[in-house]
Design brief:
The structure holds two protein chains of two kinds. By secondary structure, chain A is an alpha/beta fold. Chain A has seven domains: about 60 residues, no CATH class; about 90 residues, Glutaredoxin (3-Layer(aba) Sandwich); about 110 residues, Glutaredoxin (3-Layer(aba) Sandwich), CATH 3.40.30; about 210 residues, NADH-ubiquinone oxidoreductase 51kDa subunit (Rossmann fold, 3-Layer(aba) Sandwich); about 90 residues, Roll (Ubiquitin-like (UB roll)); about 90 residues, Up-down Bundle (de novo design (two linked rop proteins)); about 55 residues, Alpha-Beta Plaits, CATH 3.30.70.20. In chain A, about 40% of the residues lie in helices and about 15% in strands. In chain A, strands 6-5-7-8-9 form a five-stranded mixed beta sheet, with helices on one face. Chain A has a five-stranded mixed beta sheet with strand order 15-14-18-16-17. In chain A, a hairpin with a 5-residue loop joins strand 14 and strand 15. Chain B is an alpha/beta fold. Chain B has four domains: about 70 residues, Ubiquitin-like (UB roll) (Roll), CATH 3.10.20; about 120 residues, Orthogonal Bundle (Fumarate Reductase Iron-sulfur Protein, Chain B, domain 2), CATH 1.10.1060; about 120 residues, FAD/NAD(P)-binding domain; about 80 residues, Alpha-Beta Plaits, CATH 3.30.70.20. In chain B, about 30% of the residues lie in helices and about 10% in strands. Chain B is globular and about 75 Å long. Chain B starts with a strand and ends in a 14-residue tail after the last strand. The chains are: A alpha/beta, B alpha/beta. Chains A and B meet through helix 3, helix 4, helix 24, helix 25 and helix 26 of A and helix 2, helix 16 and strand 13 of B.
Amino acid sequence: MNKEIIDIVDRIIAEKGKSVNRVIPVLQAIQLEFNYLPAEALERVCEITEITPSRIYSVSTFYSQFRHQQVGKHIIHVCVGTACHVKGAMLVYDAFRRALKLEDGCDTDADGLFTVLKVACLGCCTIAPVVQIDDITYGNLTTEKVPEVLEDFKHAMNAGFLKQKESLQYESAVKGEIRIGLGSCCVASGSAEVKSALEKTLNKNKINVNVKQVGCVGICNQVPMIEIIKAGEPTAIYTKIQAEEVRNIVLKHFKPDGFLSNLGNRIYNYVENLAIEDIPVSTHKYSVEKRDTPVSEFLDRQINIATEHRGIIKPLDIEEYIRLGGFSALRKCLFDLHPDEMIEEIKLSGLRGRGGAGFPSGIKWEMVKNAVSEEKFVICNGDEGDPGAFMDRMLLESYPFRIIEGMIIAAYAVGASRGIFYIRAEYKLAVKQILAALEICHQHNIVGSTILNSNFSFEISLFEGAGAFICGEESALIQSVEGERGFPSLRPPYPSENGLWGKPTLINNAETFSLVSWIFRNGASEFNKIGTVNSKGTKVFALAGKVNRGGLIEVPMGTTIRQIVEEIGGGIAGGKAFKAVQIGGPSGGCIPASMADIPIDYESLTLAGAMMGSGGLVVLDETDCMVDISRFFLSFTQDQSCGKCTFCRIGTQKMLEILNKICSGKGKAEDIALLEQLAIKTKQGSLCGLGKSAPNPVLSTLLYYRPEYDAHIQGHCPTGKCKDMIHYEITEDCIGCTKCAQRCPTDAIEAKPHELHTIDKEKCIKCDICKQICPTNAVIIK
Amino acid sequence: MIQLKIDNIEILVPEGTTLLKAAATAGITIPAMCYNETVINHASCMVCAVKNNITGEFLPSCEVKVQQGMNISSNSEEVVEFRKDALELLLSDHVGDCEAPCRISCPAFMDIPQMNRLIAIGNFAKALEVVKEEIALPLILGYICSAPCESACRRKQMEGAVSICQLKKYTALEDSKIANHYLPEKSLKINKEIAVIGAGMAGLTAAFHLLKLGYSCTVFDKNKKAGGALLKLTEVELPKGILDTEIEILQQFGVEFRLNSKVETEQLKNDFDAVILASGENSKESGIEFSETGYTTNQKGIFACGSVISPVKMAVKVVAQGKAAAYAVHSFLSGNLLQTKLFNSRFGKLREEEITTYLKESKPGERNEPSNGNQFGFNKEEAIAEAKRCLRCDCRKSHSCKLRIYANDYKANQLKFKFASRKSITKHFQQEKLVYEAEKCIKCGLCIEILAKNKDLTGLTYIGRGFDMHIAVPFDKSLQQAIANAADECIKTCPTAALSAFSGEDEFKINEVCE
């Protein structure tokens, strides 16, 4: 055995521990070290720990985070989440493979430089399609831009761009405040560069203002965005700014103290105008006092409870959080309320779990409280595995103290002594923020023993989920924390009596916890006033897809789909017709535009064949094929099924096979009946929530879009999305510019200057580049 | 104690009892595959599903515990359909043959692979016993059978089909040379007499099987000699001595011959408990009409088989019909239902890479031809060498596989969910003790639990998730490094033939790996 590997593994084990339940953190550490899991390293783990070969293989092959094969130096993660899918993620994926000349069955290029992998969802849905190369995220990609992205990345690597750090030096009096959002979307859109440009400008010009990094502002489609607050001036918001524009903006508001210097002209981000016609590519100023701007429309129709003080508070500034009322609810609970009163308050508020099923939180808390045990646990579920959802990520990144406060309150109410944040490892920033926030809380005696000098003690640790959608399911999540593959177990018994390590365990979603402190500060009745009869309060949605303004939104329950799409979202992008919304991700369904006036609550969505789910809301337009959407979700659930139950393991695969058949034009009329029958049986025959809800996308599209299925059976995909059923053609509008011919990767178009071009169908691989690049829109899909 | 209803029967059982066990106390049997009492395992196969009539849910009865006031259906049409769907899904992902293609293509359903295995170890007498389970006239067929089995033989893809017909002939010839011919054991004697008209292949076969079933049987023929159409064959096609020996063996077995006698069917109908018409082509009688299936006629107690119904060219088909007619008579007289063929999983042609896998269990080499010429057949060494070329296509647990048994009980259709291409077959051997065929696995994980419980070597593990999840040895090691002491328990517990004993279900060891 390689001595070096042994030393590294031994060090990791010394740090992470030898017990069986440490298997996931150990594997994560090994992968961090080697970029994959070398067999030798795993064998060493088995030698020196209680972890058996059977366990280490079972676990390491279950979670998608882990790799057993060596990969390239850099990893290209192509997001194939819902929002990216509907915006052509698969074409982008194919384009990367082509650009790197990858052969079938091989994911790493010949030089061993890049490995191309698909990832279920990066949670950057508003700038779809998204690709992450190592730590750099590129948004709004098209197949055509792929070579540029690769070039840019190589450039950035060579320049050591990412390592660059600037520090601010203040000399004169503070002149104002500049806020910059640094949520994942913002960073992906280039706000890190904007920030660094900002710091440079301020430094070089010796301008002294407070630069405040705020969490996600929610207006993800308008980022990078900065807000300038200066006494005597209305607050100004600049959207979609680019690094090189920062200097001019800053100088417009603040007088420089020194001489000017030019910034480098490298443009890092790839974000362009996100199709709001009336906004120029960048540098658009809005006054917050001015109505009817995209920003105010987006924000004004929302109620902020989970996202209270959005765009104002700095995620890790505990003083500010406290100044704005933070931890007052915790104080009130610890010193003024009895746990029974607290549970009564939660019941009165009408709060229901925001993770999907909508179980009444008060009852859940009460069950855990009533369970008799020396030890109890509270787990914050931040696993958010649904493609097309990013609520938990943003809440965890932007409001870590609020979620921690909610958790401690819950722990006090149910009598738990230990808490665990369960967060997907892919959410690097969220993990970082929560760890930092926990550390700060420790220093302030908010987490740990005798919290705020009460006699209540509560420790919180963090567990990084290793990439399995099923681990959002409570019993599978517990298995995962215990170091097992995420096989759900049959319920009852429920985690509230028999949870982590057999102890009573309260598991709530991150969003649920983020609502708790507000309820205690403002009173249950205030919360109860908001919403519908059975669904109280607000719901955070990740609005994405074909909408003009996507982002994280928080709306009162009962808001209609139409209000969200048309008012908050600003309608459908590109003047296309609104077709449907996909709510609830792989467990949800598609609700057609004709039903857009239903008010959103738990019951109405279930009745309409969808599901609240965790809150992914992907808007679809007339160009989206519903059979393809249904196939997309099935391929996701099939891959994410734990594999245990027959109906889910084989049923989802068989449904996918039928859908593949239909989408490739080989479907027969009887296939639709069999698909429906299988969908119903899979719902009935699966033991956990994943399997029971996996057929929902199929059933809801069958319910509302049957004619589209029938059209496919007759050999025609009405939207032209199903690759096998379409071909590209060039119309008379061709001006013979040869652009398409130059870019065609398979020479399917011959360059004939000033002549009408044609496409060789035999050679065409339907990569869509010609259509994207044609200046006269002469390339059409038939 | 908990009170509940299963199929409207009131049941009282202690708290914590599973529905499966609660049902058993009322004599209700529920099928179960992924469940085993000796290990902790979670429900997965859903073959044991029952319906909770109050909530409308389908529950895995092997794991769900009884609750006060439950109202459960275990045998409604809906539950049966549900289990059938679960089985059909499992079968759609089950790549394996219950019976070998050669046996399936044999009209008489002869257990060819078993015969081959016995010949391979030199146990010719036992091999003939296997042959005579289904075939009444192996000696004759050894000369005139057109051997459809050899067209189906998978070895055909690799160095030529196994010479099955010659092997069968060899066992019969060996038997013909000894004084005490092999005579099958007869079932308990039934005091009923059957008349068979016609001493051709169809009639002789019917008589043989009727005797085996315990009946008395008399064969009538208008000719002086028994043999029917066989008598017209040339000495080269069928030596007279062969026919004579076969008839002699049948006589020894107890067939009564009334040769040289013209008989009236009507008369025989009165004198015998049943009559089988096997008088060959062009001997139809007025007033008797043949049914299209089942070898019955419009007259109660009169049956028919062979060319009398319509001309049959293939000799082995005639033999198959004679047997079927015998069983039809048995069903008529005993009131027992006719046994239909068992469910049979099939996967079709071997792929290139699978041939290599299959060859592991056979000897390489071209098809052997008898050195003395086809007429005289193989010598002992040739027979053994040829039998060793058999690929062992049949399943090692064809009798005990629960998937087959339940698929049969629930009349499951393996093709219902077949849309995409199948997985490729793999076989792993643990010395000459255990075989692991991953594509027959239903992923219940019982073996993983058993091996972990016994702390056996590295054990087995789940790999991957979703549809691709499978069970394998960690670190890509061999089965030798995974399983030792608990092998037998794994074999016994595995609900399918994913894990099976190397020697199959037989008591005697008749296999070897030829790697």
